[in-house]
Amino acid sequence: MHLAVMKSAACFTLQIRCDNCLRESERIVELPVGEDAPRDADELIESVFLERIPFRCQPCGGVIGRLIGIEGGYDCGY
Asked: Smallest Cα–Cα separation from 28: which of 11, 44, 48, 16?
């Protein structure tokens, strides 16, 4: 018998545009599931988790990025 185990993290795909070279990139972020962890894009925006995620553009080295989209959430990865 096989048992399904729920993943212990909620995953989000962030679409980020560099303010310097205007190139777009994606970053996959896995956040631990818990009482205060965001479950969807709206909760992620309202939380402090985005403040802790550093950005560095690979092509130009810019450190300022603009979040242009979020996909995923709590049900990602079951």
From this structure: 11
